Model the fold of this input.
Amino acid sequence: MSKLFVMGVSHRTAPLTLRESLAIPDSELQKRLTQASALCGEALLLSTCNRVELYGSLPDESAAVELRKVLLSGQPEAERYLYEKRGGDAIGHLFRVASSLDSLVVGEPQILGQLKQAYRAAQEAGTVGPVLGAFLPSAFAVAKRVRSETAIGENPASVASVAVQLAHQVFGSLHKQPVLLVGAGKMAELVARHLLAAEVHPLWIVNRTLSRAESLAAELGGEAHPFERLESLLARAAVVISSTGAREPVIRAELVSRVMKARRGRWLLLVDIAVPRDIEPQVGSLENVYLYDLDALQQVVSSGQAERQREAESAHRIVDEEIGRLLRRARSADVGPVIRALRASAHEVAQAEVARILPKLGPLGDKQKQLIAGLGSSIVNKLLHSPLSALRQQAEQADGAERTEELVESLVQLFSLDKQLAAPPEEAVDPSPKSPLGRGALDGKDLENSSS
Amino acid sequence: MPPLFPVTLALQAVACTLYVVAVAQPLLRSPLKVARLVLLLAVLSQVLDIGWLCLRGLHPGSSTREAVFFLSWLLVLAYPVLARRRAAPLIGALLLPMAMIMEIVVRLVPGGSDSGHVAHSQQLASVHIFCATIGTALFGLAAATSVVYLLSERHLKRRMLDAAQPRLPLQTLDDWNHQSIAFGLLSFTLTMVTGTYWLSIVLPRPGSLSMGAQIFTLIRQPQYALSFLTWLIFAGLLAGRRVLGLRGRRAAMWTLVGFGMAVSILGVYLLRDLRSSVP
Done:
């Protein structure tokens, strides 16, 4: 049986206020990890604004009750929002979370980083064991595959990310590209934060009320300038984000035309997120000037979201495929001990027969003895080759779990393999270095329901 | 015909098709990988052909035909060099047909010799043709990046931001365009200098013809006028960028005009060879 287990609340099950109250502060993380791992052997805590989840090794019922207390930090009323998944369902859930298919904004890239960070924290706390150590790297690999084979993360999901993407399409790297914020509104601040993450520098802020520009500049690490410097800053900035509350346009075509002469044709990206608009629409027709207003940005966001949903379908297929692959690998690992036991049993019989017959053949040289011993092994191998190959193929088939199980049971009964299979793990179980998942981490049977 | 010519052409066609697929399906990585491999095989195959031709005295400086064949090889080689850091399948999809057309045309035209009739200036003529070839190849590269620039710029102006098909940034394309033109012009200037010197050797002495008659003789030959115009356009582009900030869309358009002129020079030479081969 797969031993992965998850319990938690997410944006799908719990309101924001509850999620906020359950969020685990960094200072408490290690303590909670230790408490949880004491109950179930292994623990990983994922705490983001959209989910608070505990991953671990499957606990018994009494431990599960205690784990709920650890996760819900003494808020029993939150229990009705709690979900618990185990085995294949837990694996499927983990893969979907890592691939950002369970995110509020499908395809957002932060969740994978947050999950990796949670994994690192658990490793540092010493609460990662064979189960988490097997499934988390697999989840990261699945998420990577989803990112590289679909465009799920490509389409920007917000006005701010569209602005950053536009800047990338004009300038390539935004490293050390100067950005000008006209107005100091919340929306401009949000866009500026996205741009700062792309290493733009410097960030100039002009505002009619200089003190407001100064306080925002202090918060973002930018420079505040009086509104009168707008033209000279426009001549130097690469990206301009405008969001003033003015009733009339503050950036007119005539001004930009003048500025473009001073810029000697260098590209200028203007993002107008003000309503009513701050920038005259005619500005967009000037050469090497790219103007995007809120409508245009929203249009990109909407088409991006629709595109993300389409890509999410492909991503779900990839996740299901990976779960299926895991399932087949698990079943192959399941038949391994039976195959080895059968071969060992058959070889044992052959060697016993050879040992019985050799004295009756009279004086023989070493070569003849070796040939007779080899003959026994060869006959066993040839006899077993076809049925064992068929068994392996059956185990690797996507829907072959039931049939494989029947075949394994038949083999165990027909050849009385119970004794060999009951041998200690180092004799009966192949550690199978090719498989990234240890035998303790999963079992084929319980993965069946996870790929839906 | 060089022995590997059909192989080269087939490889280039396959690579070109794969680049078109890569443009249409940007998320698929395999067409780009395979295309790169096929393209390198095409480059290798063509360089073997060029070597084979050189062994027979038909080196790139020996005639317009071989120069254009070499030029097509440079164009094919230019893509993997240009795209070593950043995949730009659209540029590959533009350069390859350009190169393939050149190769087919030159193989249809009978080989003439530009320098055979002036034995004493053979080396000078070879240098002249070689520089012209390099220059034209670089202008071809600039033209390809210009086409991609114009397409990307059109998309941005029309607010057609398609994140699933990430385009090369405008600034990168413009930088590639500028660098190709700068090096291309250097080579083309050498072409002009060697060409002028060569003309001073082969044209009649001033005593036999007046200066006006000499200039008239030159102007009557379109390849000289076109060469001068090509040089003027690309020199103007570089000067315009430095002095007036001429870049972006207008620079891309002028690059295409300049490359059109450069190709027409080759066309004039090839037509001359064709006419001279007709009895």
